[in-house]
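Project standup — Tuesday

K.O.: blocked on the structure for the chain from last sprint. Re-posting the sequence here as requested.
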Amino acid sequence: MGKYLWIWVPAGICYIFMGCQEEAVLEESERLKRPNILIAMSDDQSYPHAGAYGDKTVHTPAFDKVAENGILFHNAFAAAPGCAPSRSSLLTGRYQWQNEEAGGHFTLFPKKFVTYPDVLETNGYHIGYTGKGAHPFNFRASGRDRNPAGPEYNAIRYEEDQEDDRWTHTMNTSNYAANFEAFLADRQAGQPFYFFYGAYEPHRAYEKDSGLKREKRLEDVVVPGFFPDREEIRRDMLDYALEIDWFDRHLMKMMVKLEELDELDNTIIIVTSDQGMPFPRAKANLYDYGLRVPMAISWPDRILSGREVYDLINLSDIAPTLIEIADIDPEPMKPMSAKSFTDILYSDQSGLIDTTRKTVYAGMERHSSARWANLGYPKRSVRTHKFLYIHNFAPERWPAGAPQILSRENPDELYYMHGLDENGR
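H.V.: unblocked you, prediction finished:
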C-alpha cells in the first residue's frame, strides 16, 4: 500500500496519497509562477492605426494577434506627447511634472527616480531592452551607468546595404528580433524576464513614396479632418504606415520565438506607442492625435481573450500594474501617481469596466530646443470620455517651436521666419 497521510475532520476520516499531494503543490507552484513581460512600443503612432481597429493602410498581424488573444484598448493615452517625458512616466508611474528633469526632453533622468525595470531586476527578473529605451536623456550625467530602461541589447545590426531585409534606408539598423533572442540566451534557466522592445519606427524621416513602392494604396488612407485631403498627404501617411509594419514585423518574430520556447502563454505582451504620429497637430500636442495611442495586451494564462475595453488608461498606469502582477513591494518606487488596472485585465467583461476611471491627465513643457533661450511651451490637459480641456501657460509662444531663425552671433536676436527674406518672400 502506498504512503498516505491521515487527516482527522469532523465528518470522519480521509486520506491523501502523497503522490497526489505533491501534484497539488506542483500545480500551486505553477500557478504562482511570475509571468514574463514583453513591452513593444512604437515611436510616434496614433490611434487607430492598427489592423485590429480597421485601418487598411497598415499590416499589423502581431498587434492584431495580441488583441485577439487578449484585450484591445480603445482609450489608451500617453502621459505626454513627447518621447522622453512619456517614457519617464511609463517607467516611474508618475506624471512628467513630478519627475523634475526627467519630465523634459534631452535632459537628465535623476537617479532618485526608481524605475519598475530596476525593481523587477532586484526581485529576480532578467531585464533588458532593444532599440530605443528611455530616450533622449543624458542618463550618465544623472549618475546612472545604464539607460533607465535596463541593459541595452543592440549589438546585432543590419548592414547599411541590406535593404531587402531592412525595407528602406530610413529604418533603424538594429535587428530588434535578433537582439531579443540574444537577450533570452543570457538569462538563467527558469528565470522570468522583462524586455522592452522600443522601435525607432514610425519616427521620421521616411523614404519618400516607400509605402506606394510596397503596394500600399492611396484610397485606403483616412485623412484626419484637420489635414487637407491632398495626394501628397496620403503618400506621406502611407510611408508612415509602412514603418508601423516594420515595427510589427519584428514583434511577430519575437512572438514566434516565445511560442517555440513554450513561453508565450505565460508572457504578458503589451503593444502600444509612446505618443502620436509625427504630423502637425499630433505629436508634441495635447490633442487626441498627439496622446491617444493604440494598445493591446495579452496573457493567455490569465487574461480572457477577445475583449474590447473603453476605459481611460494612461500609459503611466502600466508601472503599478506590472508591479502588482509580479507581486512585488512597490515601496522603492513610491509615491506613484498612476493606478493599476489589473481589475480590468482580470475581468471577463468588455466595454467600460472600472467606473472610477473618469479622467486621464497629460502635460508638456517642451519637445526640444526649438526656440530662443530654450523657452518651453508649458501646457496641461484633462481628458474625459466626452471632453478635452487644455490649459496653455504661455499662449504667446508658438506651441511647436519658434519659426524664426536665430542669429548665430547673438542668441537673443531673431531673424526672419524660415523660408522668408527681409521682404517677406
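K.O.: great, moving the ticket to review. The two ends are 100 Å apart (CA to CA). Residues 1-31 have pLDDT under 50 and may be disordered.
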